[in-house]
Amino acid sequence: MPAPPRTIPSSLVLSDVRWLRSSYSTGANNCVETARPAAGPSAGLLAVRDSKAPDGPALLFSPDAWARFVTTVR
Description:
Elements: E1 7-8, E2 20-21, E3 32-35, E4 46-50, E5 58-61, H1 63-73
Protein name: DUF397 domain-containing protein
Pfam family, one: DUF397
Organism: Streptomyces lusitanus
């Protein structure tokens, strides 16, 4: 089985997801948004995009990798 993609050129292809922002966001669109695709090749991964560019690329992380990242930066 091939490895899942780690980037998506445009997050618009994830049309069936709900993008979430941190409650710490100031509303100035200077944060990241996350979503959990339920279907397709990205299912089970966490998508992350820049809130200033909602049609831009998204990075994909395993839930464990994202949790380690968030724990490290806190």
